[in-house]
Here is the input.
Amino acid sequence: MRVSTSQIYTIANLGIGQAQAAITKTQEQIATGKKVLSPADDPVAAATILQLNLDLARTEQYGKNIDIAENSLNLEETNLQSIVDLVHRMREMAVSAGNTAVMTASNYDALAAEVDTRINELLNLQNTRNASGQYIFAGYQSNTKPFVGDAGGNFFYKGDEGQLRLLASASVSVAVSDSGKKAFVDIPSGHNTFNTSASTANKSNPPAIITVGQVFDQAAFDELYPDDMVVTFTKTASSVNYTVTQKSNGKQLLVDQPYVAGVDIEVAGTRFQVLGNPHPGEAAIAANLDFGAVGAFDFSVTPTNISITIGGKTETLLLDQNVTNASDLAAAFNSVSGAPNSNSDKLVNLGITVDATGFYSPTGLNIRVSNGSADTDTVLGFASQGTGTSSVNLPFAFSAAYDFSTNPLTFQLEVNGTTESILFNQNITNTTDLAAAFNDPINAAQLARLGLTVTDQGIISNTNAKVTIKGGSAFLDNVTGLKTQAEGTASTRGLLVQPGDSFFVESTNKQGLLTTLSRFSDAMRNVQDTSTSKAELAKIVAKTLTNLENTITNLVAIQGEVGARLNTLESSKDLNLDITLSSKTVLASLESVDVSEASIQLSMQTLVLNATHQSFAKVSQLTLFSYL
Here is the structure.
């Protein structure tokens, strides 16, 4: 067989290259200590090695999680123990305070001062941060300070009920925090009690505050429980008053009581104060419907019924007297004939009065007189038939005509923050023209959206809401008799009372630790050296002791939970060590190179390479030219 020179060189080059590659790979294996250098070396082993490395990395992260969790739980455990110690001290003080026979008011002042100091200490403990600056008792809201207090002795929880959790192993998740609400707020109370708070919609500045308060008559409060109360401030012409109502049914427990800052409010067995200057809202503006030109008619001959409607309530009154003037007309409406269903009784039921000038509604509810006759029209001086006549909220006082068709005007009506634009483009010469301009089809939809009706007497709010006319001109001022330019004029009649600030007294069967101590301190600061006062303090001390016992029970239970979690972390740590050791053992068997075996293999591969070099040297000399 003939072998060309080029073939000899090609074969030699291939053999030497393969031998050299084998040596290089073995040298790299020895240098790195790894048997599988690439997936191509052993695809199955490479896949297993990748999975084992991922498992080891995950287990390492579990270890870091466990360290973080242990630090968090150890910090929580330390704080809980400090709080338990503090509560034990408060219990000792409560026991001392119960000795009312020998303690004096000055002694109680000293005890209250220490309790106040302990409250500040407790507040700091409950607002503890970890090394990362996060609040440990705030739930998921770890960047929000969980407990804040006010000058009224109230404390509020601003966190949530979440628990932060970390994975300690592939199958174990451990809570590393407890919400402050669970630990310090939702503590079962030994008696029905309440929490106080201010409405977030209050407008006073600086804000008025409601104090934490006390239950001084447990039996009376138990009758109210579990209902809540609302304290609402209102304004009259001369004073600021407050009304206390039951939240569920609106029953008024205290009505229009004069407000004096810092004076106790006692209702349904509770006692509390409102401090500062609560916003009183706006006083009601009475509604009135004046008589017109009173005519004469003898209703004793032809008795006639007429309807009066106030705030959706309608009464039918009987006119059966001879009316010759306004005084006679007022007397007919105030007749006591037919009691207890007389005209006078019906006026009282409607909450209005009638005198020689007309109808008067002090609450501001609009008055409608309807379903009369031509005879009642005569004596009243206004239309009473059919839908009759209603009192107005913005009465017109026409003074001068103006032709808006030559110079149209757009202005605004506002009701409860909703504003609509009204267009005048008519010639207005009297109040009839004025009402027609308001009720023109181009304005009708706007009036309907605002809940307004316009007559030749003025503008009526169907809901007694405040109506403001604004953005007008001097010409509009003349035709309406109202100031309409710039900010304009608001309702001058028939405006309901606008409530001011409100405060909530919410019944509960739980009492937070800070609230318990705050009420304990408040009771001792206000005790007097009288048997009655000390007897009341003794009741509060007994409640305090019960609530402190409940607090300790709650905290010890949470301490037990924290200890159990630490034990779980310790078990998970041991499990993770076993997993790590097992994974590394398997990984080593798949990945690590046997150095002795690799060294022998390297020697053999070197021998083969040398033999290949020597064979090529001899074969490359075999040519025909050597035999010529």
About this structure: Residues 531-591 form the longest helix (61 residues).
